[in-house]
TrEMBL record:
Matching InterPro entries: Glyas_Bleomycin-R_OHBP_Dase, Glyas_Fos-R_dOase_dom, VOC_core
Domain VOC: 4-129
Pfam families (UniProt xref): Glyoxalase
Name of the molecule in the record: VOC family protein
Amino acid sequence: MRVKLEGITVLALDVPRLTSFYRDVLGFKVIIEEGHYTEFENDGVRLAIFAAPLMADNTNGHHSFVEERKGQAFELNFECASPEDVYVMYDDFVSKGATGITAPKVTSWGHTTGFFADPEGNIHSLFAVNPVTAENA
């Protein structure tokens, strides 16, 4: 028996604000939008935002949904077609309201990567695999 990852739900205190960010800054198309829940069009894994207080209701008031969050709980990784696209998209996201964390740079693990935060402080990455050249082969 095996399980399959079907979706990722981002818990939010301000669902409309985070929805605006994922739609207007990151470019995801909204397919369901309710006051407490938003679902985006995405190939592969379902991406949604849900109100954290309602998740507490769904889990008999589990403390983890009502306590103030401290620290990073997850990271979304957005792959770009090329290293050049990472720089362009990072600048675009920041100009539209993302918080720049680390500007894109070539990393030791063979990617060009930059980090940004959404309005609730979740830090995500933009990356592209660097092409193999004779210099780094």
